[in-house]
Amino acid sequence: MAILLSASALAADPAKVLRVVQPATDEGFDPVRSVNYYSGVILDAVGERLMSYDYLARPAKLVPGVAESMPVVTDNGKTYVFKIRKGVYFHPDPIFKGKKHELTAEDFVFSFKRFMDPKLRSQWKFLFDGKILGLDDLAKRAEQSGRFDYDAPVEGLRALDRYTLQIKLAAADYNFTYILAMSAMIAIPREAVDVYRDDLGAHPIGTGAYMLKEYQRGRRVVLEAHPYFRGFIWDAEPGPDAADRELVASMTGKQMPQIGRIELNYIEEEQSRFLAFMGGELDIVHRIGGLAERWRDGKELKPELTKLGITRQDMVEPETTYTYFNMRDPVVGGYTPEKTALRRAIIMSYDQDAEINIIRKGLAIQNKMPIPPGVVGYNPNYPAILHYNPQAANLLLDKFGYKRGTDGFRTLPDGKPLLIQLASEPSSGSREFDELWRKSLEKIGLRLEVKKGTFAENLKAAKACQLPMWGSAWIADYPDGDNFLQLLYGPNSGQSNNGCYDSPVFNKLYDLSHKLPDSPERNYLYELMSRQVEYDGAWRFGVSRVRTDLVQPGILGYRKHPVLHAEWKFMDIDLSARKAAQGAAK
Amino acid sequence: MTAFILRRLWQMLPTLLGVILLTFFLFNFVGGDPAYLLAGKISSPEQIANIRTQLGIDQPVYVQLWIFIKQVMSADFGVSWSTNEQVSQIIATRIGPSLTVLVPILIIETVLSVALALGVAYVRGSLTDRSIMIVCTIAMSVSLLVYIIVGQYALAYKLGWFPVQGWGESFSENLLRFSALPILLGVAVGIAPNTRLYRTFFLDEINQDYVRTARAKGLSENTVMLKHVLRNALIPIITNLMIYLPGLLIGHFLIERFFSIPGIGREVILAVERSDFPVIKAITIYVAIATMFANLLADVLYKLVDPRVQLK
């Protein structure tokens, strides 16, 4: 999508109020401290990053954000130079004493340094660890002195002039631009940090199209159009989806943003969200899959909803679930043929269709590789080798000496008892998966013990490579396969590689992939890595959930983006259509 | 009376110390390590060590315990580990909505169930008594969740008598508009078991000799029931009520969740999910203190209701 800058006045209409909902509370809006998705939604709306995404292109495509253009990359992918747009202003705030505050390159230098300040304990720190020349040294000095020196120059992070930012990396990283497009990578003014300090999370001052007007954590967020926002003309190329053409026709040429006010309420319970939507209190309701029987008739939207003009949007989330095996576990771990056979048999026993159709109500698709759909490196035609096949799994176990005892359960090849341990949480959702695992494993004569622990307990044990098996999920931080494959990279054991999988072949392929930009050659390496994971039986690949949003009539321009969290600045409201629909509903 | 209250207040100190010790050791040894949650999805051992240092959970146990005692004494539990918001601010902003719903539930439910129990106790064994007891038994057997789901769907969405969910800015709007259905459902759930319970209290009193004497003296049935029976049955009723009081401080998670009431119940659950110990510890201590004061209040009320009670 090409976003054309417009010199015309702000078009946002205060009468156009969008009413949206989130199912869980945010954690405040300090970009360094806030990692949950719902904080990211607001950060997306109030802030701007150097890079952003085309609104309609699928798979997600990077475009300049607050940068004038794509960065100039030199030094074999190690030096990035960004030219920042002129005339971009932060939201008006008392800290600026009535003056307009223009965004500069120094704001990004300051904002990026904050991620490494030990006192802020940023969960995003890993994105910068070891990447920018000199930044780690500054963080180390802060750990020793107890004070992070924001004024100290950093070789790899410099404002060359008011509008030019130079970033020098320690090594080439072709995904760095993706990182700079993440919600947390917005620029915030140093004055805001100095004034609001620990309360910065309640004062997200950015340059985005919307600014925070009201914030009651866990209850309500109100945003209003940023009066100094430069605006843009809606001009997009439709994606492959036929509905895109209608959307493009309704929006092309409009001065944006159109919506003047956004009221976001937190409604945790799905029934409450659905009823509030059906009662006309909400314009869009997200992720409504759990109540599929209320809005779905077969695979289609119920006729009574269609009659009301309600539309449905499905999107496969850029995420994957997986069950990992701890490769250091004495029972399921190890790389010997019989251990690999045991893991493969377990993978082949798991009834994935039952999970999708029964537990997930058909709103998920099976993943055949660690990289999910919508993410660079995903190949829909990847020929997986491990499929659901309990019969073959039984034969495999027979072949490698896992004999059945008189009770029908198998023993280890040396005759010792065989007990498969699965970590789980004490919740009703986890219980459904536990039962599916139990039934699946019993079909191949394996006895399962489910070990319950809180998420915190399981996470701690996982980081120490102490959980034999655990189900997990990963949502793309950025839409590149690398973000998923790093979960299997040996040196990441104890950090993100909770299965402590350490295959020399995989590690070598992973290292090689880091030396390549997005290309067919790199995608081929990704497939080889996927194959190695299958070969070793390190993961049972899970599913990507299908997200369903319901949209009221009169809401224009909405298309859920797989990576962007908030689409509001691309949307419009046809007030008369909405009023007519509300009248019809009554 | 004053001496009794002072003595009881003094006795609260060792109880509070016991609660502090129990809370501290439970959370430290059973609650898991919050550093792993706070470190995020990709974290190094160094990062986790840094977080542990910042939170002070790498300090010797006696140092951590002393910090906790100081926090309790100063009523300053610091900031939430997950949101950085002051714990006192979290509690202060969430307790109001919870009380807006729960106090009316407690009052209405108590008044109605006492009145109903007194009525059915008076006609014990009659068709009315038996019918009401059957209804109460059925009502008690239905889960609160069912009441909420059906009530929200039928009364709010289908009939439109109440808002489906929400919370406003003014107390009156919240109490009369947004809390009306949650209060109705809360009362509907609580009235059945309380009616059964209070009925037994009244039956115990109705069969006492003093009731027979009162009737023999020619007192009217209203006087017998309302002046003598009710007053004597109030002591177990007060005991029952005082058990509920501290619960007001932890809100009602289900009601708050379904009706989007920004109360303390949701905050407690969030804090547990996030291992946000400062919030959990603060609420635990406040509930413990509230329980002690409720017990004291119960004793004082016993004396007011029945002058024969001796406060020692």
Explain this structure to me?
The complex is a heterodimer of chains A (586) and B (312). In chain A, strand 5 (72-74) and strand 6 form a beta hairpin. Chain A has 18 helices and 26 strands. In chain A, the strands form 9 sheets. A 4-stranded mixed beta sheet of chain A has the order 2-13-10-9, covered by helices on one side. Chain A has a 4-stranded antiparallel beta sheet with strand order 5-6-8-7, with helices on one face. Chain A is globular, with a radius of gyration of 25 Å. Mean pLDDT of chain A is 92; it is low at 1-9. Chain A has a domain at 319-545: Dipeptide-binding Protein, domain 3 (Roll). With 586 residues, chain A is an alpha+beta fold. The model of chain B has no long low-confidence stretch (mean pLDDT 89). Chain B is 76% helix and 0% strand. Chain B folds into 2 domains: 2-74, no CATH class; 89-305, MetI-like (MetI-like fold, Orthogonal Bundle), CATH 1.10.3720. In chain B, helix 1 packs antiparallel against helix 14 (277-305). The interface between A and B is large, with 48 and 46 residues.
How would you summarize what this structure contains?
With 586 residues, chain A is an alpha+beta fold.
